[in-house]
Task: inverse folding
């Protein structure tokens, strides 16, 4: 490998371009990039400039970002209203779904919520987001706080675990990642909401919160802060959902008389 140079790398990439589909070509290139980082880190090449090799082994195929699945404010409220809060699991699901619908918390942060994250004296939820490692501090509303208290006092099994939300049946433990998704799907069906070709988990509630805030003319930096995004760039994806807002951004096409083109080709 010590004799491998940029000329051979370009020849190899050209072969991939000719013989592989774009997705297959990029899968191979991604694996190659990992391998060359290893070689450079361990000084196994004549030229161990990792940035140069990464520039040569570029990813060509860019997948378009999917438009987030969202639900209207009325649909979200219908989901919440469909929860049967007369039994322990319903009390748990009600509190969890409110955290997703009102604050846009990710399922990992809801499942991982601990008692130490609840600041009852200051009425706040303070946690470090698992995905971004960013600290967020959210006001604990009467609605959400009441739902959590209702679950802790009358729904949560009396076991010594640090997590607020746990399984409804023994052996009691932290919730799995699919538990909340399955519950929301059930409540959507109960509310008569059509989720065909749309995501129906807690992330859809997060997307819905952002989109509905946009429709209410909330500013992007505020939405970004609520969702715990590192920058407004991540929040911009919701603009693709709000077509009415996009129409406002469109510029009118000026009228061009036919004589303009006649003069252009004289």
Result:
């Amino acid at each position: 490998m010590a004799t491998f140079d940029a000329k051979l790398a370009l020849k190899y990439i050209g072969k991939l371009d000719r013989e592989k589909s774009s997705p297959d070509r990029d899968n191979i290139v991604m694996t190659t990039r990992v391998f060359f980082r290893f070689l450079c880190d361990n000084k196994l090449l004549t030229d161990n400039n990792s940035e140069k090799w990464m520039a040569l082994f570029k990813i060509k195929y860019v997948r378009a970002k999917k438009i987030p699945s969202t639900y209207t404010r009325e649909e979200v409220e219908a989901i919440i209203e469909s929860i049967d809060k007369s039994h322990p699991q319903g009390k748990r699901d009600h509190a969890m779904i409110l955290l997703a619908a009102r604050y846009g918390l990710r399922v990992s942060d809801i499942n991982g919520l601990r008692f130490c994250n609840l600041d009852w004296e200051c009425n706040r939820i303070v946690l470090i987001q698992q995905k971004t490692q960013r600290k967020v501090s959210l006001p604990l509303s009467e609605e959400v706080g009441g739902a959590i208290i209702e679950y802790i006092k009358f729904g949560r099994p009396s076991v010594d675990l640090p997590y607020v939300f746990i399984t409804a049946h023994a052996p009691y433990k932290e919730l799995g990642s699919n538990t909340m998704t399955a519950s929301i799907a059930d409540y959507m069906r109960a509310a008569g909401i059509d989720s065909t070709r749309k995501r129906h988990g807690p992330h859809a509630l997060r997307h819905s919160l952002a989109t509905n805030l946009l429709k209410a003319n909330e500013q992007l930096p505020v939405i970004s802060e609520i969702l715990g995004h590192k920058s407004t760039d991540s929040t911009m994806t919701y603009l693709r959902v709000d077509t009415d807002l996009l129409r406002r951004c469109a510029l009118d096409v000026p009228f061009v008389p036919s004589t303009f083109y006649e003069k252009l080709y004289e």
User: Anything to note?
Assistant: The longest strand covers residues 124-128. Residues 22-41 form the longest helix (20 residues).
